[in-house]
Design brief:
Blueprint: H1 5-33, H2 40-53, H3 63-94, H4 110-119, H5 123-134, H6 139-146, H7 150-163
Length: 171
C-alpha cells in the first residue's frame, strides 16, 4: 500500500533537519579520523545516505547524533578495511615485499604529534578518548556509540590518558 504523499514530505523534512543539525559534527568527526582528508566528503555522504535509508531507525534528539557517530565509525572502519585490502592486492600484484607505511608530512607540528600519540593507542582506547575529548560526549553517550558499558568507556579513557600522559599536548 503506497504511503500518503504528505508522509514523503514529512520524511524529507525530518532528514533535512537531521542533516542540518548534525552535518558539521559528522564532518568534524570524519576529519579527525579519516586517513585521507579527501575521503571526508565521501564519508559524510555515506553516513547521511545510511541515515536516509534507515530514517525510521534514527532515534530522536539527542540520541540521533550518537546514532550518526556510530554509523560514521562503521563507515570509516569499512573504508580502512577496503584500503588495507586494496594495498594488499597491489602488493601482491607488484610482487614486492611490504616496504612499510607511507611517509608522513615533514614538519613536526603539534597537530602531528597529537595524531601520532593518539594513533599509538589501542583502537578501543583511541576511539573512547576521541569521543569523550574531541566530540565532547559524556561517558554514557560514548558507551552508546561504541556499544559497550559506561564503565568500559571510563576504563578505556583512563588507560588512554595514562598511556599518553607524557606528551605536552595532554597536560
Amino acid at each position: 500500500m503506497p504511503e500518503p504523499e504528505h508522509a514523503g514530505d514529512e520524511r524529507e523534512l525530518r532528514f533535512r533537519q537531521l542533516y542540518l543539525a548534525h552535518c558539521r559534527a559528522i564532518q568534524a568527526y570524519a576529519v579527525r579520523r579519516a586517513e585521507v582528508r579527501a575521503d571526508v566528503p565521501d564519508v559524510v555522504a555515506e553516513v547521511f545516505a545510511v541515515a536516509w535509508r534507515r530514517l525510521d531507525d534514527v532515534p530522536g534528539t539527542p540520541a540521533d547524533l550518537l546514532w550518526l557517530y556510530a554509523v560514521a565509525r562503521r563507515v570509516l572502519a569499512s573504508r580502512r578495511r577496503g584500503t588495507r585490502r586494496f594495498a594488499s592486492l597491489i602488493s601482491r600484484l607488484e610482487l614486492v615485499s611490504e616496504a612499510g607505511s607511507y611517509p608522513g608530512p615533514g614538519a613536526d607540528t603539534l597537530t602531528e604529534r597529537v595524531r601520532a600519540a593518539v594513533a599509538g593507542l589501542r583502537p578501543a582506547e583511541r576511539e573512547a578518548l576521541q569521543l569523550v575529548h574531541w566530540e565532547q560526549l559524556s561517558h554514557a553517550e560514548a558507551a552508546e556509540v561504541l556499544g559497550c558499558s559506561v564503565n568500559a568507556v571510563g576504563i578505556r579513557v583512563h588507560r588512554a590518558r595514562r598511556a599518553s600522559a607524557g606528551p605536552p599536548w595532554y597536560q
